[in-house]
Structures are given as C-alpha cells and as structure tokens.
Amino acid sequence: AQTVTQSQPEMSVQEAETVTLSCTYDTSESNYYLFWYKQPPSRQMILVIRQEAYKQQNATENRFSVNFQKAAKSFSLKISDSQLGDTAMYFCASRGQGGSEKLVFGKGMKLTVNP
Amino acid sequence: GAGVSQSPSNKVTEKGKDVELRCDPISGHTALYWYRQSLGQGLEFLIYFQGNSAPDKSGLPSDRFSAERTGGSVSTLTIQRTQQEDSAVYLCASSLSGKGSPLHFGNGTRLTVT
To answer: How far is it, in rounded angstroms, from Cα A95 to Cα A108?
Structure first.
C-alpha cells in the first residue's frame, strides 16, 4: 500500500523564523513525484513545491525549499522567513507509486505563524 | 484562466436522501480526481478519471458512492442514501496527464448530513 506519513500534527513558529516540516513516504517505484500542498482556512488547496525523484537537486521556490533524501524516503519542507500568511495546514503527497497517477496525501500538519 | 469550479459550495441534506456534487475542471485537463476531507483530517482518495480510460474507483468507501465524467469534462459525484458519516468536504481536482503534473483543486463542497 502507498503511504505518506507526517508525524507532526501541529507546529508553531515566530514570524521571520525558519521552520521545517517533516514527511516520509513508502514506494517501490524508481520514478515518482513528491509534492507539498498548503491549505489555508479558506479551504483552497495550493501547490507549494514539487520534487521529481530522479533529480538529485532539491527544489526551491522563493522562501520554500525541500530536503529530499531519497534513500531515507524523506521529503521535508523548509519555510524561511515565516510570514503570517503561511499559517495553514500543510500536506505532503506522492504520485506515481504502483503505476497509478493518483496523488496520495499524508494526514497533514497545522502550522501557525505567530506575530 | 478559470480554475476548478465546484457546486454547490455547501449542501445540507437529511439522512437517507441522495446528493449530487458537481465539478467543472480546468479546460484541457484530462485527469480529474475526487477526494474527501473529514474535519481536521487529511485527504482521502475516492476516484480518479484519466481521459477515456476506465476510472480508478479503488477509494470509493461503499456502493452508495458513484461518479461519472461526461464528455471528458464535467464530473458528478453521487452519494445515495446519505449517512451522517458522509459529512465532510468533498474536493475535486484536475490536472494535465503525467505524474509530474500538479493537481489544481476546487474550493470543495461542504456536505452536512443531519
């Protein structure tokens, strides 16, 4: 079975600080994709960042970057210079496991950025 | 351009009634997904359509749930004989084909079964 695990249900950080959200996954495929999505209170799911498994270089999008450890099946998200607008649920997801294109999500983690 | 559109945004129904939830994907997106999100929980995969291929229905929780996609575009998720445990937010997403293509989500339909 495909699994994505986010072991931290909730975190908080002070504005302007850096925070790291952890995620592990399980797959037998060699080629797959990993994603982080953000869901603010508005309920809209927003793509934060995407990583291709066969690329060794960690993906970066402005203040967001990942630490992709393929051997350890770990895919953490680092948010630098946290902003109040980063307050949201964050979901890690994988796609391409088992030949299916369905996106499998972790249970999510609630991040609160405090002023 | 227009994003994924879902209707209604909120639906309250009585236990035992049938409901239909609608999803209008982004034009040109061949893949369409339905997920369910219970209060404070993650996203539970329900069903996935890709082009003209047979849908992946492996996530549907019971035979009361069904979905169709007409003309490769609009999709309808139907829940028959609703139960209180069906109360949740139902999210629809679409994407281009290919495992690297990100999903674009609608704002969801919040279903409340009384």
So the answer is: 16
